[in-house]
Design goal:
Layout: E1 2-9, E2 15-18, H1 20-30, E3 32-41, E4 46-52, H2 55-68, H3 94-100, E5 106-112, E6 115-116, E7 122-128, E8 134-145, H4 147-151, H5 155-164, H6 168-179, H7 185-194, H8 202-227, E9 231-232, E10 235-236, H9 238-242, H10 244-263, H11 268-291, H12 299-324, H13 329-353, H14 365-368, H15 374-380, H16 386-394, H17 399-412, H18 414-432, H19 442-451
Antiparallel strand pairs: 1-8, 2-7, 3-5, 3-8, 4-7, 5-6, 9-10
Length: 457
């Protein structure tokens, strides 16, 4: 089973949004060959429907909804004086709630041969009843998956192979995390780096790439335990589902397993590179915990933590792939610098994701958990809003305070500043590639570098 979130931005008060092509893309990305796609609206004024996408017919639908529940009608739901605990800014939308009763909040579409099973004239619609709004539809796909075909490479096959032989108690939670998606940035860098040496071997590089991805996933399991995070990639974390003790054991198991896989490649240089990165990750985790006592922190301490916690494994992925293929030492060092800068930029962009509603995790989660991030550091030092930011961060962080911190961070210009610095790092990383003989992988390395910062999740 695989889970997703579909993000929508509607443009009109009532709107039939054809999401069929978006759903097919999700099926393609998941590799689902035969099974079911379940859809669930996450809003009480967003319905789901299957019908024909024909403009006049859609106009008839809108007219019918208006006749049955007119927007200018009288609704008890809109009498705020008769209701208790009405939140500030609550819209008068009784008509939208009544219209939603005429629709469905969930739909299930069959999948055969990797295609949605729909009639010739059928489309799947998200029906906006109270727009324009930002909306989410939860997706679950279950059935028979061909993940290697979905990604078109050996990585998913190798990940499946490695997970298949593990005990169910550790395999199941790790499989949920791995199959929930992720950008696969680190394994992609392994495979690109491996094509820069004379001893390139696609199978060996896929094995190394899978091991690096399992290491990264193990760090996420431990991070979510330490941070008490409820969700990861739109799904409950291993800690949330399995409990803290089992989450630690799952992370430990895959640290050990990935280390063994790498050792069996019999490349001392690769083993040393990954071991150094793991040491840096552990050291930075201790630094990160220590910094939470001086929240929100300072730029120098932040960069020290990020170099170890994020950039070290991304750089190691670049380097280890090239080392496995016997690449030239000068090229390996250039790749290391490229990976370190991309890693720093990636974490800075990740800080910005906490202020996005499309991240797959609750907005403001990092603020709630008092995770040191660069936007908060910059905003807390701002002459206009810094004092209020520091005061709020020093106190109890309930929903109201978190929302106010987000507003102040945005007003300070910190988000734009962090974004500009992240893009500058990516540009420097790309320049590092200019003097290298890249054997045709240069465009892919450039694209990966920019994708590290051009994202919302």
């Amino acid at each position: 089973m695989s889970g997703r979130r579909l993000q929508l931005q509607t443009t009109r008060p009532t709107e039939f949004v054809d999401i069929t092509s978006l759903l097919q893309k999700e099926v393609n990305a998941s590799g689902l060959r035969r099974g079911r796609l379940h859809l669930q609206s996450l809003h009480t004024t967003l319905g789901l429907a299957v019908n024909e996408n024909e403009p006049l017919l859609l106009a008839d639908f809108e007219a019918m909804l208006h006749r049955l529940a007119p927007g200018d009608g009288v609704y008890l739901h809109d009498d705020f004086s008769a209701r208790r605990d009405v939140p500030e800014g609550e819209p008068a939308n009784g008509h939208a709630h009544c219209r939603q009763v005429l629709l469905h909040t969930s739909q299930t579409v069959l999948v055969e041969g990797g295609r949605l099973v729909l009639g010739r004239w059928q489309s799947v619609f998200a029906v906006e009843l109270d727009g324009p709004r930002s909306r989410e539809v939860a997706l679950q796909l279950d059935g028979d998956f061909d993940r290697a075909a979905a990604r078109g490479d050996l990585l998913e096959l190798e990940l499946d192979r490695q997970l298949l032989v593990d005990p169910e108690t550790v395999q199941a939670p790790m499989r949920r995390l791995v199959e929930a998606g992720g950008k696969r940035l680190r394994p992609q860098l392994v495979e690109l780096g491996s094509r820069l040496g004379p001893q390139h071997d696609a199978l060996r590089s896929a094995t190394l790439a899978a091991a690096i991805e399992l290491l990264h996933s193990a760090t996420l399991v431990h991070d979510d335990y330490v941070d008490e995070s409820p969700r990861r990639r739109g799904l409950p974390t291993v800690t949330a589902l399995e409990g803290p003790e089992r989450a630690v054991a799952v992370g430990d198991y895959y640290f050990a397993k990935a280390t063994r896989i790498i050792a069996e490649l019999e490349s001392p240089a690769v083993t040393a590179t990954v071991a150094d990165a793991l040491e840096a990750i552990c050291e930075s985790q201790l630094d990160d915990l220590a910094l939470r006592g001086s929240y929100p922190g300072d730029p120098d301490s932040y960069m020290r933590v990020v170099r170890g916690k994020t950039a070290s494994l991304i750089a190691a992925a670049c380097v280890a792939g090239a080392q496995l293929a016997g690449a030239d030492g000068h090229l390996v060092q250039s790749l290391r610098r490229y990976g370190e800068m991309v890693g720093l930029a990636f974490q800075m962009a990740d800080d910005l994701v906490d202020f996005s509603r499309h991240s797959g995790k609750p907005v403001g989660q990092d603020i709630r958990e008092r995770v040191v991030s660069l936007p908060l550091i910059y905003a807390s030092a701002d002459g206009a809003v810094g004092a209020e930011v520091r005061r709020l961060l020093a106190g109890r962080l309930e929903d109201e305070e978190i929302q106010r911190v987000q507003e102040l961070v945005a007003a300070s210009g910190a988000l734009d500043r962090v974004g500009e610095e992240a893009r500058a790092l990516v540009q420097a990383a790309v320049r590092e590639l200019e003097e290298m003989e890249l054997n045709g992988v240069g465009p892919d390395l450039v694209e990966l570098a920019y994708s590290a910062v051009d994202r919302e999740s």
